[in-house]
């Protein structure tokens, strides 16, 4: 899958999402401000695009294997939600700094939450913490990421140089001429940031682009290093859970600079620990080897 192809699938999924939502609004005017209807519309739109893309790019491969639904290191799986929670504050502050400089329109979500019944709030929380992350991770870190990695490996300059050397080594020494290890990190980085960029673009509000790019890159890195979709999904869900907790609290956080710095350092330390575990864990290595 090329970058242009991935962009096309992203736009198609988003248009299908908006079409499903606009259809629901046409049937019921109140659906415009209904978070649950929006979440269900996203499931329909992205689900259709995901199904079609899988039929095009991996018709003979199991869906679980393509999306990365596999076991990885239990320690990484346990740390992933903590990474999501720790990164919430620095990413939220980054967005606040941008939106203060370039104001956005009023956020209707706090008002909708305030007016909702307790049962309705519970359903909204499920939509934000479970349904949204599930759909977005399956699409951006599941369906898109691995094909982008393979495409980047194919055309990376390091890959070309390394493959030529590997072919020569094979001719004289019998070594394997598969994709050289030196090419893989560069391909991973490119694919991670590409999928993160698409993830940020579909959220429409341009003030959110940089914060969501950071978040998408974080989630993509967890997916690539662990070899599984589970850590990125858990981190995304935990990140959104903090947002829901803030929403339930009823006011905007105004954290002191020291707390922001401490949260950032903690987030980076947890991420470094996760990467270290991914590099040394036999379970994570097996998960990466099972990537299609």
Keywords:
mainly alpha
Short description:
With 292 residues, the chain is an all-alpha fold.
The proportion of strand residues reads under 5%
Distance between the termini: 13 Å
Number of domains: 1
Helix content: over 70%
State the order of secondary-structure elements, H for helix, E for strand. Answer: HHHHHHHHHHHH
**Radius of gyration over C-alpha positions, nearest whole angstrom:** 20 Å
Please give the largest β-sheet: none
How many beta-strand runs?
A: 0
User: How does the helix and strand content classify structurally?
Assistant: mainly alpha
Q: Can you tell me the overall shape?
A: globular
Number of helices in the DSSP assignment: 12
Name the average pLDDT: 85
Can you walk through the features of this model?
By secondary structure, this protein is mostly helical. The chain has one domain (73-287). It is built from 12 helices and no strands. The longest helix has 38 residues, at 118-155. It is globular. It starts with a helix and ends with a helix. Residues 173-178 have low confidence and may be disordered.
